[in-house]
Request: fold
Amino acid sequence: MAQIDNPIIGFLEEDARRLHHPYDNALVISVRIRDYNIHHILVDNGSSADILYYLAFQQMRIERERLVLTNAPLVRFRGIIVYPLDAVTLLVTVGDCPQQITKDITFFVVDCSSTYNAILG
Reply:
């Protein structure tokens, strides 16, 4: 499995050249986190944080001992402040061989409802 130190994941206008896209929909992807294929992950380049929702954290059966104390507040839409439970660093793989990137990402674990399992900021 190839590993790149500082990968850049991006999309150019030429990537969408032959696509018909009359909507401005969110980019929602699936990635591999630890040993799990996680679906419904929002890619939000306007966010400065990577977030893992607590329900997904529980379903992945990650030991609570892996959580690291954090006190960084997160500001949601409409200015609502959310305090993460803690943070956890997990191995994330995006893409398929031979074009894939594997990297450790530190997620803030947030206990609130969402239609997504995670947000990659």
